[in-house]
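Note to self: keep these together.
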Amino acid sequence: MEEHTLDAAAVLAAVYPRVGRAVVVGFTGAPGAGKSTLIAACITEARQRGLQVGVVAVDPSSPLTGGAVLGDRIRMLAMAGDSGVFVRSLAARGHLGGLSAAASRVVDVLDAAGKDLIIVETVGVGQSETEVSGLAQLTVLVCAPGMGDEVQMIKAGVLEMADVYAVNKSDLPGAQGLARALQAAAHLGNGPIPPVIATTASTGAGAADLLDAVYAAHAARVTAPAQERMRRLQKTLAAMAGQVLQQRIAALDNASLQAIGQALLQGQQDFPGAVQQLLARALEPG
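Structure:
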């Protein structure tokens, strides 16, 4: 599903009538907050409840091969023998926003395959993590004490898009202070106030409370499967169109790009006009 092939297109066409049933939750937050370990604890709790679970873990890309550095799979090896859990690592491949461009398509396939809960973990690059809120139905922001999160989250804007806050490593000093800071910041927004859940992923403490909070947040914004299908389809179409446009721009001959750049440098063209010219060149037939 990471490549634009005819077979992949056929699979997607068959998939969309069957999507919209699963609960899709994004996990985001700065590196080191313990997202992967916390997700593993939530998977264990979900399986005890009889839920089928899918995980889309977006990893940093290997600088040598471009493939995913499988850190998330390493942390989830305990689930390897469980047929009710499917974990797929995707390489970010330089895609901004913390997600792989293929993530939405993999989520759709897992939904159609009957997964009850689908967890999307972002690459963990801090302030560019907000894209996950467009793919997932709701978002968990994972924080940890002693990382400067109190300041960083307010600067980044990820605070506003989260539906649930998880204060991980809550057995460490500073956890209560971080929880208070989150609660205070949450009251500054206009929407519903997200719950703050204390977790310790290494022991599984708080995983049940976190899963309860996720399902409560989801229940508060229930949409019909048909509406969710259309939302996800629009997101996937936009992502695929963006990929095609990027590929066409990358394929332009150097002379065309130099001509547009030269016009900018000489003051013969402004940036909006140059962008329109670039788009027109990229979308020319043939």
